[in-house]
Amino acid sequence: MTLIEVRGGEREWAEAERCFEEHGWPVTGHHPRGEGPLRGVLDPDPASRVYEVEVRLFGAARGCDRGAAQRVRKAVRAARLEAYVLRAEPLVRDREMLPEWRAYSTRYRHSGPHGRWWRRAARYVVRTGRYDTRVRVAGTPRQALRLARTGATASVTAGDTGSPSRVAVRPLDGRWRGNVRFWPEEEGERRLLRVFAGIILATAAAVFASGHSGFTWWFWGVVAVVAGCAGVWAGTGLYREGRTAGALVALVALCVFLSMGLGLLNRDGSGWTRTQILVTGVIVAVLGGLRLLVRQWTWGEWVAWAVPLAATLAASSFLAAGSLLHTLYADALSFSPDDLDVPTVWQTLAAVKLLTLLSLVMVGPAWWGYARHRHHFYAAPGEGFNIAIYVLITLALLGGSGLLALNSAEAAADKTKAAAIRGEDPPSYFGVEPEWTCVEPAVPAGRLSGEGPRLVPKRPYLSFGIAQGTAVLWDRVAKKPVKLRASQVRLVPTKSAMAVCGGEAS
Predict the structure, then answer these.
(1) Which residue blocks in 236-273 are alpha helix, DSSP H?
(2) Does 367 have pLDDT greater than 50?
(3) In whole angstroms, what separates CA 161 from the centre of its chain?
(4) pTM of the full predicted structure?
(5) What pLDDT shows up at residue 395?
(6) Residue 25 near residue 54 (C-beta atoms within 8 A)
(7) Which of 32, 123, 276, 493 is surrounded by the most beta carbons within 10 Å?
(8) Helices marked H in 299-341 — which ranges?
(9) CA 489 to CA 218: how far, in whole Å?
């Protein structure tokens, strides 16, 4: 609720009221300056009028008075009006979470066999929704029953003729036992968020502490303990009554997340990695910021901030046709992109992987969304906003994302080379499954056509499959790729790089 003083006269007042209506801000009243509730507060001035306006805006409740004042100043400045925000007071309305019920027909009581066993069985059938109607009500138990039986709608929906009393209700949640135990909707969401924030932070810190020693272990260990205690303590406030029950729920959730993060629930003992936690955290933060930004987007902001999003989507479309990650992987192994015949499904999965890396490009818009949600900024891009700096930041973030993608492909190629040199089974990479193979020439050695070092038939090679009629191999001794025409050789899989092949030139 804001008090806005508009100076001028009838023309300016009419323009201000039209401006408020265009923005969807209801005007609850107005009076001349120094009159009404402001009598004795402001000096009387018949050329000024004070409006009581509800400025409705998205964002956090904290700081919404500052956000409302900024929005009003921007609106009246655009309308070229002399207006001032004299007072801003937040009107926070937490919606009560009423118990919800489903109406159902009681015809089964008169249509089925009579007896105690039938009544008991029918109670379980009712819980399955067998006799449910398309009526959903909310309120206390008595209110819900009356609402379900209100008017002719209930009787028609239930299939009865003029007998609304043959409708009952069954609960859909546990609030009917005592709605006073639960917080209002917005407050409940905030308290639940605090619990999960503490649990996730404790799990991430425990993962960072594992495998370290010294100061690093103590630092992350202290963070894990403090965050875990904070999450459990926040759980005591989940319900208005039953603090112990809320703490137990938070403690159980903490134990489950710690077990998953440290790999205690997996047979192989593998848990979350530090890279997975960091990348997941960035993606979640970016998605949250973009969601907050989209909630209050204007067309001007959409044009400015959609540039990196459009670039990301265009990049993903390009990657779906020809995977960039596979191209970088092939280049690191001294192959050409055509040497790897990768199915489209794996190219799409690689594109999704790159999208997670490109999420760094959206850090800027996500930060703007959080800032707008906290009412720190309201000026749209182009108004007090340097577009050149924005472009440079976007290019820098895009370059950083490209380096992450390049490092990912090079790291996978280095692991493949290292495994090949040691004679071990190399790891796969988005559909590329290198395996040890004996190469048996089907033609005399002098007639073999291809690229790379001379073929040694008694030695296994690392095969990357056949692409466009060419057998793509990698020589672990020469540490170079070998390409031969597939029609001139036979590829026989072998178990390891230490096997002795018996191929001879014919």
Answers:
(1) 243-262
(2) yes
(3) 50
(4) 0.58
(5) 67
(6) yes
(7) 32
(8) 299-321, 324-332
(9) 59
